[in-house]
Sequence to fold (942 residues):
Amino acid sequence: MKKRKALSGLTIVKILLYIFFGLFLLLPLFSVFLVSFTGQPMNILGALTNSNIMSSTIEKLKGFSLEHYKEIFTNKGYYAALLNSLWLALLVSVIVIIVCIPIAYGIARTKMPFKKTISALCTIPLIVPTFISAYAFIIMFGRSGWVTYIYQILGGDGLFINPYSMTGIIMVQVFFFFPYALWPMVAAFKVSDISLEEASRNLGAKNWLTFVTVTFPLAIPGILSTVLIIFAVSFSDFGSPIILAPKDLNLLVVEAYREIAGFFNWAGAAILTVVMILVAAFFFWLQHLVTKNRNYGSVSGKPKLQKLNDNKILTRVLSAYSAVIVLVPVFAMLSIFVQSIATTWGKDPLPNGYTLKHYQTIFTSSLGNIQNSIVLAIGALLLSVIIATFISYFVVRQNNAKLDFMISIPLVVPGIAFGIALIQTFNTAPLQLTGTALILIIGYTIRRLPYMIRSTMGTMRAIKQDIEEAAINLGASQLTAALTVIGPLMLPGIAAGSILVFITVIKETSISILLAPAEWAPMSLAIFQNILRGEYYSAAAMSVILVVLVLILQAIANKLTKKQQE
Amino acid sequence: MGSVKVEQLTKEFSGVKALHDINLDIQEGEFFALLGPSGCGKTTTMRCIAGFEQPTSGEIRIGDQVVNQIPPNKRSCGMVFQSYALFPHMDVFDNVAYSLNIKQLKTSHPLKRLSIYVRMFNKKLSKYPTDIEDRVRKILEYVELDKYANRLTSELSGGQQQRVALARALVMEPKVLLMDEPLSNLDQKLRHTMRTTIRRIQQDLKITTIFVTHDQEEAMSMADRVAVMKDGQVIQIGTPTELYSQPATPFIADFVGTSNILQGKVISSKANQSIVQINGKQIKSTYHTDKKEVNVIIRPENITILSDDTLPSELDVNIFVGEIKESTYLGSTVRYEVLIDESTLIVDTSYFSGRGILTEGTKVQLAVSSERVLLI
Fold:
C-alpha cells in the first residue's frame, strides 16, 4: 500500500510538510550554523536562485573558520554570559526541586488541608508569561514596591530583594516555573510502590525513615528528569532576564537579543544562538536518557488504594508552607491588577486612588494590539491544526520517524534562538518575509506545534488501525478516509490542542519581540515596549487583559479534554 | 460476484517469510475457509486479497482481473473485521451507508461533493437521496436491524454489531466477502446462532466468501471447502469430510478432530492391504503406502471396547489388549485413555453402551477395523 508509486493526495501532503519544515525550520537553523562559522550573513535561498549571490556566498564560505568560536572564550562578555546562564539554570532547577518536594509529597501522599485550593492555585504561574511575572516582581520588590515598604517598616534597610539582579531573576523563575516540576513529582510520588513502603514500615521503620529510605529514592528518577526540564526551561527563558537583568549581568538570551536588535552583529548572534541550541538540546537529550525506559504516566493494573499520611502537625506545616509558595505568584498577579486600576501608586502600600482610565486608554489606543494578537493566534492555530493532524497521521499510522524527529526539534530550540535564525534567513530576497505577519505566524506555529501534536497524536493513537482500513475497504481513498472517519474522530483532540496553541501564541514573547513589525505588534510586544518606556499603568492593564484571555481559554480547553477522557 | 484465484503468493515482512507459495482456487459462490493456528498466515493471505498487504511475489485474481496493482479501495472486497471496526462517530444507518456515500462522492460534481461530506458528518444538515436510503433500509431489514438504524454502534450488543459490520460490507454488493475471525468476539451460544445466520446469508446471496478462523469446528460446519494452513503454507485443501477422513498430514489429523497418531514400520504394502509394526505388534490397514516409516492414524471414535465374552470373527479387525488409565465423562460420550504396551490410545465410546464408566485399571480388549487405520 505504501509502495504505490502514483502520487496520491496524501503523498502530496507529505511532500508539502517536508517543504514547510525544510524551509522554515531546518534551513534557518542550518544557515545560522553556517553564519556562526563565516561571521557574515548568508542567503542560502538567494544563492540557489541567483548566480551572483551564489558566487558571493561561496566567497563567504571560504572565510569558514573556527575563529568566531574562539570569541566565546576570548570575548569576556560572551564567556561570562554562557557561565551566568548555566549558573542561573542550575540554581533555579535545584531550588525548584527543593521547594517542590514538600508540596509534591503533601499533594500526593498526605491529607493536608486545602489540598484542592493549593493544587488549583499552582496552575496560575503557568498561564502568566514570564516577562509579566518579572514586571510584577518589580511592582512588589522594586524601590517603590509594597513588599519593600513593609520590609522598611519592619526596620529593614534599602531593598528586601533587588529585583534587578541575578537573585531577582532566580526568584521569578523559581516561583513561576515550579509547577513544571511539581506535577511530574506528584506523579512520581504517587507511582512509587506502596507495598514497598508498607514492607519498610513492617520492618519497623518510622514514617520519616520510610520517606527518606524508600519513598524518596523511588521517586529520584522522576525528580532527576524534572531537574533537567527546569534547567532547559530556565536556560531558554527570555521574558524574565530581558526585564530584570541589570546592565552588568550578561546572560546568553539577553546578549543574543542585544547583538541582533542593537548592533546587527550577525556573527555574534549566530554563535550565541548555536551555543544556546546546543546547550538546550544537550539537556533535553539527557532528560530523554533518564526517562527513556520509564513511563510515569501509565501505571499498569488497577490503581492501588493509597494510605495517605494524616499526621496533624505534618499536614498543617506542609499546607502552610505550600500556601506561602503558591501565594507569591497570586500576590504578583494581584499587584499587577491593583496597578492597572491605580491612578498613581508610589511608595505607599496602596495606590492613591482608583480609576479605569488605563483600560479606557487600551481600548481606544491599543485595541490594535489585542486584535493583532487574536488574528496572529488564529492564523497560527489554523496552520497548526492542519499540520498537526497530518503529522499525527503520518507518525502514528505510517511510523514516519523523520517527521516525528522534526517536530521534536522546536521543543529544544530556545525561542530567541529560533527567532534569530528566522530573521537571518528571511531578511532578503527571494523570500523576504521578515517584517510580515506571515513569518510571525509561521514562527509561532513551528514553536508551538509540539504541544498541539501531543494532543492530536494521543487521539490518533486511540483510533484503531482497522477503522481506517474498514473505510478504505468500503471504497474510500486514504485521503477520503482521513476526512470522513479519522478527522471527525480526532475533533476533540484537535479542539483541545488548538486552544493550547492559541494560549501559548498569545503568551509568546521572544518571537514577538524579535520578529513583529510595528503594524503587527501583538499584546506581548506592546506590554514589553510599555514597560521599557516606563508606561507601567497601561502595561499592567494590558497584562490583566492578556491573563484573563488566557484564563478563559484555558478553562475551555480543560473542559474539552475532560470530556474527551470521559 | 467472482471467483478468487491466488497463485504462488509469497509475502515477506522485512526478510521473514510470512507466506510461502500459496495457491488457492476459490469458485464463484463458494464458502471457503482458511483454517489454521494463530500465526499460520491465514489473516495475511486475506489481507493480501483485500489489498492491505502487497504480495512480495505471486498473483491474485478476482474474477478475470489480476488485482495486484489495484488499490484496496477499488477491489470490491467487502470485509468484516475481527473487531468489526464500526465507525464509532456514526450511527448504524450511516455506517451501512458509508460505501454508498463514497461511491456517490466519486461520481459527483465537486459542488455536490461538499453536501455529501456534510451528510457524512451530520445527516441532519444534508438529506440522503431516496435510492441510498432504500438500499440501506433493505439491507438492515435483511439482517434484522431496521429498528436500530439510528442507534450509535456502541449501544448495540456484540451480535448486533457483527450484523452491522456484515450489512456494511454487503450493501456495496462486493464481488467477494472477506471475514476475519468474525465470531471470535462473541460468546459460545451467540457464536452458534451467528454461524447459521452467516451461512444462510451466504447461501441466499450466493456470494463468494472467504472466512478466516482458527476454530476447526467453525470451519468444518460452515464452509464448502477448507484450506488448512501452517507456518505460512497451505497443507491441504478439501471439503470438511475429506479433511476428516483423509487428512494429508498428522498435523491435520490432530488439528481437525482428535487422533491417535502412532509411528510404525511398514512390513509389507499391497494395493489394499498393508501390515505395519508398532511396538512389536503387527497392525493391518486397507491403505497403501510407499514409505518405510509411517504415521498410523486412528480416530478415537473408530475404536470399540469389546465385551469380555465376544471375540471378533472378522479377519480384518485389529485387536489390542490394554488397561484403562484414565476416563473422562463428556456427557453423551466417555473418553478413555488406554495404556497398551508403552503407548496410550484415546478411545471414545457412547455412554449409553450399557456398560457404565469403566474404572481405572480395568483390563480391556480394543478392536479397530483395518479400514479405519490410516497410513500417512
Summary: Chain B has a mean pLDDT of 88. The interface with chain A takes residues 50-54, 71-74, 77-79, 81-83, 85-89, 98-99, 101-103, 105-106, 117, 120-121, 168-169, 172 of chain B (CB under 8 Å).
